[in-house]
Amino acid sequence: MTSITQGAAAEGHAGELAVAVARAHGVETMFTLSGAHVFPMYDGAVKASEQDRPMRLLDVRHEQTAAFAAEATGKLTRVPGLAVLTAGPGVTNGVSALAQARFAGSPMVVVGGRAPANRWGSGSLQEIDHVPLVAPVTKLARTLPTAGDVLGGMHEAFTAARSSHRGPAFVDVPMDEFFGSASGEVPAAGEGRGAEPDSDAIERIAGLLARASRPVLILGTDVWADRAEEAAHRFVVTLRVPAITNGMGRGVVPGGDPLLVTKARGAALNGADLVVVVGTPLDFRLGYGIFGGKDGGSTAQVVHIADAEDQVSRHAQLADSVAGDLTAVFDGLLAAVERGPKPDWSGWLSSLQDTVAAASARDAELLGAEADPVHPARIYGELVPRLASDAVVIGDGGDFVSFAGKYVEPRQPGCWLDPGPYGCLGAGLGAAIAARIARPSSQVVLLLGDGAAGFSLMDVDTLVRHNLPVVMVMGNNSAWGLEKGPMQMLYGYDVVADLAPRTAYDQVVKALGGAGETVTDPRQIGAALDRAFASGVPYLVNVITDVDAAYPRNTFGI
């Protein structure tokens, strides 16, 4: 292969050409688990590195981890992550990550191996047509039938993944064609920006804001994904509008900022007369777009703003909506509002700030709880003060991670990873691998439930082999806590909700080459965390927690 410069001529086998396109789109790491169907991709990565165009090969212990690492890379870097999975079970093991990426709007490309075309239908190893399986959870899914189709087909996949609304794309290549050669030009990567928003809709929404007495702004993942975090922060600060954040929108308004009223979420959403939701779906996390209306009160008007037209809610009753490039939306709205009399929401904001202060005071008791067994909140009471402003915090769990959503307020955008609305467990180790690579100088903290750990803890071996230190903090209540409580509420009993008591998961981590310890005394959590951060290795702090200290929730996601 001669070059990976965009627009330059390239020739070589199909794996080299595929790597050339990935590099042209900014990919630096290939996540994979070794499989013969995709050997040409590995050779392409090695040759790229030999030509001073590095393509890191990061091999894992389960294909789901490779795919989740690619998904998290797309979230963190806003460049599509790349997972290369061998044919058959390699691809099907990655489907959950593809689905998570589709729901979360994460840009990623999965390249699958495929049984050879010249043997198709004869029963060769792992012969299955992947495309119908992955098409429902991807933006694009296709087979590239010949080596000559790889340059254009890979470019199409990366372009789809990085264009609004972002998401996963999938291609596979027959094994015999993967080893075949072709030539052509490396296509140029585009910007992937959204459409220009409708100016009339901007003016209408600005009018709704100007007339509102009690507005609330909700900022979601796509604000970060669309690179609109600066425009969003400018909008909030200039207009002094109360804001709530979720997903990767967390940190757009920094934790501790007086305009961030996430701790007063209930009062804000029940008392608002206008809720403007930007970059997140009106799903179960947001009451399906119905705010207020309790105790005979009026429901709020709702505006939905999305990065693409197909993301605007079709089920909610909307006062208005607009879609397009979110920076243009925020700046256009700000200019339109400022052309009129400046709204004064100071009284409303002050009341929500009082609610935030009261909630923080109540939280302090649990964050310092001396309970035995340990209350999960105490872990966050010790962890949060130890987090640097650029720490990347990853949630992989149910009940235990719900407490993280309440107590961890990132101080910068792009520093929070959770499964998003798909609610998939097992993403944590892949996300931790991706975060350590993407943010080599930052703290990386993986919050694990003991249930979630069972999906992927073996990939601590990957962290060790590739020298990727991560602090893992486990809330170990020996149960599927998110299910145990609701089942008891419904039936008065629970089944299939218990795990082995006090399992020494830290010993598993030690056996794989990392380090860790079990903590049962709340007064020892802080010192254990200090040892974890200082260790320089994958380190698990396994905290035995109270199974009866369940997170108080208002919805079960249905």
TrEMBL record:
PROSITE patterns from the UniProt entry: TPP_ENZYMES (PS00187)
Family: Belongs to the TPP enzyme family.
Organism, as annotated: Nocardioides panacisoli
Thiamine pyrophosphate enzyme N-terminal TPP-binding domain: residues covered: 14-131
Protein name, entry field: Acetolactate synthase
PANTHER family cross-referenced by the UniProt entry: 2-HYDROXYACYL-COA LYASE 2, THIAMINE PYROPHOSPHATE ENZYMES
Signal peptide: none
Keywords: Metal-binding, Thiamine pyrophosphate
Domain Thiamine pyrophosphate enzyme central: residue ranges: 202-331
Entry annotated with the keyword Transmembrane helix: no
InterPro entries, A to Z: DHS-like_NAD/FAD-binding_dom, THDP-binding, Thiamin_PyroP_enz_cen_dom, Thiamin_PyroP_enz_TPP-bd_dom, TPP-bd_CS, TPP_enz, TPP_enzyme_TPP-bd
Domain Thiamine pyrophosphate enzyme TPP-binding as annotated: residue spans: 396-543
A Pfam family hit: TPP_enzyme_N
Co-factor(s): Mg(2+); thiamine diphosphate
